[in-house]
Structure of BolA family transcriptional regulator:
Amino acid sequence: MSMQQRIETALGALQPEHLQVLDESHMHSRGLQTHFKAVLVSAQFAGLNSVKRHQKVYAALGDLMSEFHALALHTYTPEEWVKIGVAPASPVCAGGGH
């Protein structure tokens, strides 16, 4: 199972209405599964600020967190997602050889 699939499986615990995990490692490193972006829409985020939402995601990922370098998180409630409909593009990595 790829790291991307493992992240998707772990995030299933948040009962997402929409989940997209992208492997963006090619933008940062050669051939290593190190950089990911997750777009997550879940009713469990209602009433939570972005820090609390991210803490929920980190808790769902558990030990997986130590197995990759970076995870860009875009977390939305279903209501927010209806208004936005798309996550922002990831910036190009500023850090050199990681």
